[in-house]
Each structure stands twice: as structure tokens, then as C-alpha cells.
Amino acid sequence: MQVIHTVAELRQALVGRPNAFVPTMGNLHEGHLSLVRQAKAASQDGPVVASIFVNRLQFAPHEDFDRYPRTLARDAELLESAGCDYVFAPDEAELYPEPQGYKVQPPAELADILEGHFRPGFFTGVCTVVAKLFNIVQPRWAVFGKKDYQQLMVLRRMVAQLALPIEILAGETTRSEQGLALSSRNSYLSEAEREEALRLSRTLKAMIARWQGGERDVAAIEAEAMAALQAAGWAPDYLVLRRRLDLSAPAEGQPLVALAAARLGQTRLIDNLEFM
Ligand code: PAF
Fold it and tell me: What is the pTM of this model?
């Protein structure tokens, strides 16, 4: 496996080789490695490329850009063990040699709700860096985790609308034995918070059980889930039931997803569960 820091060297290494790509911000865990293994299975003997770049454009000024863990040496070891062939780890001056004035602006109906409502500009930052990485890596396949459910939808739509010749593959969320969705931000949690964090997926399960039990007052299900988390000391942004197709209000007989974002202490966690 080779760690490459410049666009020119990466292009040189990949020329004429269809590759499978896993974009990340580093501080990797088993969830990322499962995406790398999925990329390897898809790549049909072509190389697997992972990028590690903490993208300033998708962080608001009050968010954790500065304290986001940078763990390149450990990440590279893990990527090698998962079968990655190239790690692209540019510094900021390499990826943004001048202020990134051209941006990819996703449509409001998908990008200004839920995550985008609470993190204005987040999906513009994500789409811009991913489009730029796609232009550099020119993958045939790209793998994104369902853990970032809305991000996956926004990027799928971007690839379709811009007619990029890339197949987007969705990776299932990897969880701890107790059910906590793995996330780079879990490393911010104390032992006690890590235990408490399990409440998020349990609350989503309780919401789903109510829907599956026949309740259709979605506003009440959502409000009571918010109240339950608040009572346990969390600061929830949203707990919602939505259609998988476009994240609109749930409808009978449609594939659905329950999504949550909530702050536990200093750490903002997201999770989701698909259901019918
Ligand atoms: O999901 C992430 O880690 C990031 O949003 C991504 C896709 C690597 C873009 O910076």
C-alpha cells in the first residue's frame, strides 16, 4: 500500500486503472474498514483507494474542525490490513491551493432538512469536496456508509444529476456489540457517555416499534422520543420517521427510515435504522 500526498502522484499511479474509492476524514474504525472491504469486492481486481482529508468546508466555525482527530499513521496501518492499495492524504494547500470559490450546491429540499437544517452549508461542503475528490481519483465505484444516511442520498443525487460515471455503493452501519453505531466522534465520549450513547438507537427502535404497532401520529411519536432523550440529559436536534426514498413524511407500505441527531455532552451523535 502506498500513501500519496499529491494530486499529481495519485493521478500518475491510477492512470488507466478503474478503481474503487472510499472517501474518509480519517480517525478510522471498523465501519470504515468494512467500506474498504466492500470496495475491494467491487473493484474487480482494480485498485482500492481511500482518501483521508478533514474537509474544512463542511464544518461550521463553532464545530470540531480543529479538534477532529488526525491519526494518519494508525489509519494507514488499518487501511493496509483491510486491503487498501492507495491512501490519498493531501494537506489543505494541496486540495485547496486557493480559496474554494466554486462550490457544488445540492437542492434545498434534500440538503436543507435534518442535518442540513442544523448544520447549514454542511452538504455544500460535502458535495464540493467529494466532487473534487471524484475528479482527482476518477473512481468507477465509490462506497459511502449508511450511517450518514442523508449524505449518502445527497451524494447519490449529485452523481445522477451531474451524470458522473461512478456507481455509488452503500455500506451497512457497523455497530458495537451493544448496538452503538461506530463513528469517529465516539472517541470524544467518556466511558459513562459511551454507555449512555446506546440510548440513541434504543430510542429509534422504540419509535419504530410504535409505528409497527399501528400508531400513525408521527408528530406524537417524534415529540415523545425527543422528550425521552431530553429527560435523560441529551440535547436532541431531531428524531424523525421518514420515507427512505426522499426523506419526506412516512407513508403506508413504503420503505422507511428512523433518523436521529443529538448531542450528548460535547459530542454530537447521529444514527438511523431502516424499517418497513
Ligand atoms: O463522511 C465523511 O467522512 C465525509 O463527509 C466525507 C464524505 C469524507 C467528505 O468529507
Answer: 0.97
